[in-house]
Automatic annotation (TrEMBL):
SUPFAM superfamilies: Multidrug resistance efflux transporter EmrE. Pfam families: EamA. InterPro entries: AA-Vitamin_Transporters (IPR050638), EamA_dom (IPR000620), EmrE-like (IPR037185). Belongs to the EamA transporter family. This is EamA domain-containing protein. One of its GO terms (cellular component) is plasma membrane. It comes from Lacticaseibacillus manihotivorans DSM 13343 = JCM 12514. Its main location: membrane. Residues 7-139, 151-287 form the EamA domain. It is a multi-pass membrane protein. It is found in: Cell membrane.
């Protein structure tokens, strides 16, 4: 394994270890703030952190490539996280963490269509069916595992589509050989531009008295500096070094991390059907990885 690919694997692992706990931090903040307030605040913090980390303008040789950043900001920042935060108001952090493992399947399909990646083998489709079976099991309110709602789980699934689009666009951005920190910040810029009118329409409200509580400002800093500024840089680096499909495989670790922390921190119930659903989702993801 080359040094570049090793760096990519390390970057992806660090990213997923942190992202696996973001649902927990967001769930805690949702007790005091609405989804759009959390979303806007965390990415403002992330943008400022990246600006301090690597100041200066991003120079793009071909201005037509600007549309890649526009699309990435809209899909991966504004839409994905808005849908995810809304999903967390209606379903459990465990459900959201498990459902996002569908993202690699969608990413692989879009990569085949738009990045000329190799076509998936039969294992890809078998794995997809197995994983979706797990998602249905944990999402069915009539089952013992159903701790959330179909509406919330549906929003989480829609977020997966947005992330798949973002993954394809960041792959194209990585081919431009730009500074990773500055290009990530540029994506954040467009994400915030699209986010502002949505925040205004949905009622952005940051209660500063509530914000002073240690668990609230601590979680905002964790989401802004850790999950946004640091992890988007490490994830974009991983995609650049490993490619879209390989780096997306690490998303399969998200439900395991989320389940562990949701039980420990949020005291969410860990039922047998939920564990079976998680196992099916991960098994399906592994089978798909044989592609």
């Amino acid at each position: 394994m080359t040094k570049a690919r090793t760096t990519g694997h390390i970057a992806a692992l660090i990213t997923i270890l942190i992202w696996g706990t973001t649902c927990i931090a967001t769930k805690v903040l949702l007790r005091s703030f609405n989804p759009v307030t959390i979303l806007l605040a965390r990415f403002v913090i992330g943008y400022l952190a990246l600006l301090i980390w690597k100041p200066g303008l991003l120079h793009i040789a071909d201005r037509r490539h600007e549309w890649l950043f526009v699309g990435a900001g809209f899909s991966g920042i504004t839409i994905y996280y808005l849908l995810e935060n809304m999903a967390l108001t209606q379903t459990t952090a465990s459900n959201v963490g498990i459902i996002v493992t569908v993202s690699p399947f969608l990413t692989a399909l879009l990569s085949t269509w738009f990045l000329n990646a190799k076509r998936p083998t039969i294992w890809f489709y078998i794995g997809f069916v197995v994983a979706i079976s797990g998602v249905i099991l944990i999402s069915d309110p009539g089952s013992a595992a159903g701790q959330g709602s179909l509406a919330g789980d549906g929003l989480a699934l829609l977020a997966c589509f947005a992330w798949a689009i973002y993954s394809v666009l960041t792959t194209k951005i990585g081919e431009l050989n730009l500074n990773v920190i500055q290009s990530t910040r540029h994506v954040f810029f467009y994400g915030l531009i699209f986010m502002l009118p949505i925040a205004y329409a949905l009622g952005f409200h940051l209660n500063f008295a509530t914000l002073q509580q240690p668990q609230n400002w601590g979680n905002f800093l964790f989401l802004g500096i850790g999950a946004c500024a640091l992890c988007f840089v490490t994830w974009n680096l991983a995609v650049k070094r490993l490619g879209t499909v390989v780096s997306s495989v690490y998303i399969y670790l998200v439900p395991v991390i989320t389940l562990i922390f949701s039980v420990i921190v949020l005291h969410e119930p860990l039922t047998v059907p939920l564990m079976i659903g998680a196992a099916l989702t991960l098994a399906g993801s592994w089978l798909s990885g044989k592609n």
